[in-house]
TrEMBL record:
Protein name, per record: ABC transporter permease
Gene3D superfamilies: MetI-like
Start and end residues of each ABC transmembrane type-1 domain: 74-277
PROSITE patterns linked: ABC_TM1
An annotated GO BP: transmembrane transport
Keywords annotated in UniProt: Cell membrane, Membrane, Transmembrane, Transmembrane helix, Transport
Gene Ontology CC terms: plasma membrane
Membrane topology term: Multi-pass membrane protein
């Protein structure tokens, strides 16, 4: 292996320094949100909070975790994230695998139709009429079924399936495996990297569901967390539990602290998923980058 030149070493140091500073710069707004969520209302109103909490307190989080409406929104978001991601992966794999096999006669036509959906999308009104005719309005299925297959993720998964050795598929057929048995026993165990990568993309999309919920969900009890967060941010009139008298003054004196605490609660869970899937995520991002 050739030794790195001084110029190359200097470039690596400068590049690492720049990326580190950029990462810190991007993290500063998030750090400010954390600081405000842990600060006293008077310090927030006075503008004293920057990157460290002032007059440290956890009262904002106590309010958030005592609010039944927020817990209900969290439950809705967790449900559509888990169920929606499972539906996405199942639907995407069910379409990508047969299209990746050369014996599937109509695969070229299917690919063309999918490419068309990447260029042209249906307007809002026809989409809403379709959801209404299917009785999906004010139903959580309206947040999961319409986007069951992402065209981009379909092509990523198809590229992965194309790289699987055809000898494995042929050997499975010789051993008497049907298509479903072969997919379950051979294809899916080898597809963990792409499944983990696309699962992260799909899960983040469901966790951040906002526009679709505004269009199709009118019942407050079915609002996901992002819509509930929007309600808190747009209005300073934060609802309080009549039985939680200790929060009655907090809701009016420190709405900003409560909003920031809610933002943290809405952000942290999806961030914590990444470290557990990082290895598969990096492998999945290499799909299609190298051609043999």
């Amino acid at each position: 292996m050739r030794k790195a030149t001084p110029a190359w070493q200097a470039f690596n140091i400068a590049n690492l320094t720049f990326l580190t500073l950029l990462a810190l710069l991007l993290f500063l707004p998030f750090l400010n949100v954390i600081a405000q969520s842990l600060s006293d209302s008077n310090a927030i109103i006075a503008g004293k909070v920057v990157f460290l909490p002032v007059d440290f307190t956890t009262i904002n989080y106590e309010y958030v975790f005592s609010d039944a409406a927020i817990w209900r929104s969290i439950g809705v978001t967790v449900y559509i994230t888990v169920m929606g991601t499972l539906i996405n992966l199942l639907a995407t794999a069910s379409l990508a695998y047969p299209v990746s096999r050369p014996e599937y006669v109509g695969r070229k036509a299917v690919i063309i139709f999918i490419l068309i959906t990447m260029v042209f999308s249906a307007p809002l009104i026809p989409n809403f009429i379709l959801m209404k005719n299917l009785n999906l309005v004010n139903s959580l299925w309206a947040l999961m079924l319409p986007g069951a297959i992402s065209a981009f993720n379909f092509f990523v998964m198809r590229s992965f399936f194309l790289q699987l050795p055809s000898e494995l598929i042929d050997s499975g057929r010789i051993d008497g495996c049907g298509e479903l048995r072969m997919i379950w026993s051979i294809v899916l165990p080898l597809s963990k990297p792409v499944m983990a990568s696309l699962g992260i993309f799909y899960a983040i999309g469901h966790w951040n569901t906002y526009i679709a919920a505004l269009y199709y969900i009118n019942k407050p009890q079915l609002w996901p967390l992002q819509v509930k967060l929007r309600q808190l941010i747009q209005s300073d009139d934060i609802s309080i539990d009549p039985n939680a008298s200790q929060f009655s003054s907090l809701a009016h004196m420190n709405p900003e602290g409560i909003k920031m605490a809610t933002i943290i609660v809405a952000t942290i869970p999806i961030i914590l998923i990444y470290p557990f899937l990082q290895k598969h995520f990096v492998k999945g991002m290499m799909v299609g980058s190298v051609k043999s």
